[in-house]
Amino acid sequence: MYGIIVALKDINIHIEEGEFICAVGASGSGKSTLLRLIAGLDTPTAGEIIVDGVGVIGPGADRGMVFQSYTLYPWMNVADNVGFGLKLQGIPAAQRRQRVSYYLDVVGLSGFAKALPKELSGGMKQRVAIARSLACQPKILLMDEPFGALDIQTKEAMQQFLLEIWQRTNTTILMITHDVSEAVFLAQRIYVLTSRPGTIQQEFKINLPIDRTYKIKRYSQFQHYTDEISDLLRGQLKVEVG
């Protein structure tokens, strides 16, 4: 019989408006738990989570969520999937259509508004999921390893796409990932979590150009960040195994 498991402990992070932040950690570090707490899907046993001065007590339209699985409604076409949250919010139909059209254009899927999810590739499905979250115009977009199920070529294309979306919309983003290279490519700052109970081991400010392409992965500074963060995570693994 197991006792109480402490998933996270002494977590203290801050995210400024318009920032792109990543949290990385090994399996069991509480990354997904952290995101669920901020989303209001779980309740912390201690401490508080504040978004724009207001305490989080449950899910809300001020926080959008994108999961690794696409979570699209298979019986709805792309436009209806994107507009679903707006309909729940009671947004008038004309305004819904206008906003759906705008965000389908943002994610490059204007020509697929009437398509069903089964007709889309994995990358396209994830674009729809991102458009659905952005359409509700959240104060922060929470992303739980959104590209983890994609092949490497699609994953790299989606990383570039996400950076372009972030720059175009100025949306605040918190993304968790186990992929260190992905985090360095995307983030302005990275929080490294220890293994259970998850705590903030170190914060990295990523001093790389804002306008990034895959070529930046060849920079020595990019490799330096990747190696340093990877070494931290390997050190945790040795402690656990040992």
Portion of residues within helices: 25-40%
CATH third-level topology: Rossmann fold
CATH superfamily: P-loop containing nucleotide triphosphate hydrolases
Give the C-level CATH assignment.
Alpha Beta
Beta-strand fraction estimate: 5-15%
Average pLDDT, to the nearest integer?
87
Structural class of the helix and strand makeup? alpha/beta
Order of helices and strands: EHEEEHHHEHEHEEH
Unreliable segments (pLDDT under 50, ≥5 consecutive)? none
Domain ABC transporter: 1-220
GO molecular function, one term: ATP binding
Protein name: ABC transporter ATP-binding protein
GO cellular component, one term: plasma membrane
Task: Describe the structure in your own words.
Belongs to the ABC transporter superfamily. Nitrate/nitrite/cyanate uptake transporter (NitT) (TC 3.A.1.16) family. It is a peripheral membrane protein. It holds the Pfam family ABC_tran. InterPro entries: AAA+_ATPase, ABC_transporter-like_ATP-bd, ABC_transporter-like_CS, ABC_transporter_ATP-bind, P-loop_NTPase. Keywords: ATP-binding, Nucleotide-binding, Transport. The chain is of the alpha/beta class and 242 residues long. The protein has one domain (20-46, 74-241): P-loop containing nucleotide triphosphate hydrolases (Rossmann fold, 3-Layer(aba) Sandwich). Helix content is 39%, strand content 14%. It contains seven helices and eight strands; from the N terminus they run E-H-E-E-E-H-H-H-E-H-E-H-E-E-H. It has helices at residues 31-39, 78-88, 93-106, 122-135, 152-169, 180-186, 220-241; strands at residues 20-24, 50-51, 54-55, 63-66, 140-144, 172-177, 189-193, 200-205. Strand 7 (189-193) and strand 8 (200-205) form a beta hairpin. Helix 3 packs across helix 4 and helix 6 (180-186) packs antiparallel against helix 7. The longest helix has 22 residues, at 220-241. The chain is globular, with a radius of gyration of 18 Å. The two termini are 24 Å apart.
